[in-house]
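Per reviewer request, we include the raw input and output of the structure prediction for the construct analysed in the revised manuscript.
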Amino acid sequence: AKPDVIINTIQGDAVVPFFEGLRKNGITPEKIPVMSVGSVSETEFAQLGSNAMAGDYVTASYFQSVEREENTIFVTNFKKRFGPDSVVSDWTESAYLSVYMWAEAVKAAQSAQPKKVLEHAHNRVVNAPEGI
């Protein structure tokens, strides 16, 4: 078959060999672009090389290249802690954000009791690295 696009939902370490296999078999973005849905982050970009996915598409909730002051501070602090070559993935930022969202719910509930926190977990606002 000659599809117009390949939809990629592969998660984790298998993403890199998947793209390497496509390229080894002559499947390039010019021939058949790949649309990765929440499965490829800048961590994989770094492993594949900056040009390896040029012409393909990715949807994700976060990219470390987002130009916001909050993100610059977050990425700078992350690299200080984990090394200058470390890459912040959407998974990492999501875990970071989750702690702040939980803290906002605890403040609203005035308790860390799970049932009370859950009652106040909805409609929390956090100025996260990717935005509000």
